[in-house]
Amino acid sequence: MTVAAQDMARLLVPVCCPGCGLDDVRWCDECEAQWWEAPFRSEANAPRLERDGGALAVWSLVDLEGSAQQMIEAWKDSDRRDLDPLFRDAIARAASEVAAEVTMSGPVAVVPIPARRSSTRRRGVDLPGLLASACARRWSDGGADAAARNILTMRRAESRGLSARQRWRGAQQSMSLVGSLERARTVVLVDDVMTTGATLAAARDCLEAGGAEVRAALTLASAPVRSQSPRVGLG
Q1: Tell me, what's the pLDDT at 4?
Q2: At what angle do helices 198-209 and 164-174 cross, to 10 degrees?
Q3: What is the mean pLDDT of the chain?
Q4: Domain assignments of the chain as residue spans, ordered by start
């Protein structure tokens, strides 16, 4: 009877791996394995994070391409709420890996990059908030003074398909602070993906204008560095 019920459920609501399309599994072992890798420094992928004193430190788990990109798109845009625990656990593992880098200097506020309100209503969950809460919980379990704080808001239109300059201008104009932080508490930003780094940079600028110290950022995926065109010129 159990098998018959499962078969009927598959007919009514087909399940497949969002990374490769394998039938009858929420995700396959191969597509899951990449989310178990150690996080890597990815700020070099995002020139918008550069400053005179250096770029903001950003850790990511995977490059935003191939099956990883397919999985994140299904999670964000195709109502695959069954992927919530996979990405929540993945970001928590990454948080454990970088704990020594970001939680050694006192209290930490884990601030999610705000999602569009319409997206949150449609999904029924604040995805960056889910990730930030997982990070804060993991660091707290490890003995750090860490707490998730939703203190940013962003009024924005869809950013996908825009140029890097358009993303930058839109993020700078729409990010605002809706709460305050204790003076001694530093910030780690959390987001699902990083493309140009414009949104993370706007969040950092907004928080620092409010008196916070932004120490680092953590994302599930980052857009990989594309090969640059060779320099050409006269001579």
Answers
A1: 57
A2: 30
A3: 85
A4: 37-222
Judge whether residue 88 has pLDDT over 70. Answer: yes
Amino acid at 10: R
Query: From residue 203, how far is each of 12, 25, 78, 223 by CA, in Å?
Result: 42, 37, 27, 18
Place of tokens 């394998």: 22
Distance CA 165, CA 197 (A): 11
Among candidate residues 177, 165, 233, 183, the one with its CA nearest the CA of residue 205: 177
Which one, of 124, 136, 153, lies nearest residue 96 by Cα?
A: 136
List % helix, strand, coil for the chain (3-state, nearest 5): 45, 20, 35
Pick the CATH number of 37-222 from 3.90.25, 3.10.20, 2.60.120, 3.40.50: 3.40.50
Closest to 192 in 3D by CA, of 235, 231, 230, 159: 159
- pLDDT-based confidence at residue 158 (cuts at 50, 70, 90): low
